[in-house]
Write a structure and sequence with these properties.
This protein has 200 residues and is an alpha/beta fold. It has 2 domains: 4-15 and 86-199, HAD superfamily/HAD-like (Rossmann fold), CATH 3.40.50; 16-83. Helix content is 50%, strand content 14%. It has 12 helices and 7 strands. The protein has helices spanning 19-26, 29-39, 42-46, 54-64, 69-77, 91-100, 113-119, 124-128, 135-138, 145-154, 169-176, 188-199, and strands at residues 4-7, 15-16, 83-84, 104-109, 131-134, 162-166, 181-184. Strand 6 (162-166), helix 11 and strand 7 form a beta-alpha-beta unit. Helix 1 (19-26) crosses helix 2 (29-39) and helix 4 (54-64) packs antiparallel against helix 5 (69-77). The longest helix is centred in the C-terminal third of the chain and has 12 residues, at 188-199.
Amino acid sequence: MIKNIVFDYGSVLVDWDPHYLYEPYFGDKEKANWFLTEICPVEWNNQADAEKTFPEIVAERVAVYPEWKKEIEMYYEQWIKMINPVPIAGMTEYVRELKARGFKTFGLSNWNKETFNLVRHKFEVFDILDGMVISGQEGVKKPDPAFFKILLERFHLKAEECVFIDDNEKNVEGARTLGFTGIRFTDRPALESVLEPLLG
């Protein structure tokens, strides 16, 4: 029986996208795409989710691409501009509905500690959840099984009683290997079509 619904944050509950910063800056979508693929790719950003701090990864990147120093430093200094103040459509409401129906709700997110603190109190959904585990606070991140186990142990949960929802298939598969029911997120209607039959 499913008792707990566990949500990723970025692109599931809140809308984080570096293009929100760089497309207006460059005034060119293709140039922003190039910069975020070649100079500051997501794999580089992900280092700050657990292993390193943002100042560390910025300094390392500037050393490799000194000609892009200003733009690389913007990634950290103006990070808040990557967050859409409007949450993912319908998801805050859905979390509230699930709680009202008796399900426990949790967050499990790969997120840098410093930057998460910038938005922790800007979104109502974070206060609705029954608990959360943030990679930047733990020093380990998805899809490492150890990260999922922190959630299970801290909140006394059983994996087989949990649904895990993430937009990244690797993370979903990581949860499934531990016994979670995993769902890849695209939007609320698609999520409901898969989740609701599991809830009875």
